[in-house]
Write the structure tokens for this entry.
Amino acid sequence: MRTCSDLYGACRPHHDDDAERPAGPARPTAPRPTPPLPDGERGELPRALAEQRELLLITVRGIDDEQAARRSTVSELTLGGIVKHLASGHQVRTQMMVRADGALPDGMLDMDQYRMADGDARTGLVEQYAAAARATEEAVAALPDLDRMVPLPRTPWSPPETVHWPVRRVLLHLLRETAHHAGHADIVREALDGADTTAQR
């Protein structure tokens, strides 16, 4: 199984009126940028990330913990597992940007980040995702620009030499990964109960 921790490659709508939506568990609130965001790309990239997170979180509206943990396709991915993994992705990349020491971030190679554990709850995972996103935005806002070069951590699949990326590329990688998994989540949700998440935008 290829993991999205691979920094050198890829990981794998019309609004209805709220009154017309079927009753169900409370909808998770999409994590949004903590205002005010800086001008320029230090603000635009976090805004783009927030938009992708909002679209992804449509897929976990109106489901319970059992549904969030349930496989609905031949893939092992679940809705709760996707949210948990992306929260970890924010935490990993924030550590990379802030420490800039090339050390392996906590949890980067932990395969449990893809699975809902017995004690995990859908609402708790969404809150964890929101907190991780805020930490990323705060770290980016504290930088003078996105040209700062950070060493990538050494992993079993790393090239022999240390690779450096500008913070800009780290954020773009996170944006790509979020959009990638938003598509996964859309398929998992539709296979789960037939919900058309695109129509709920």
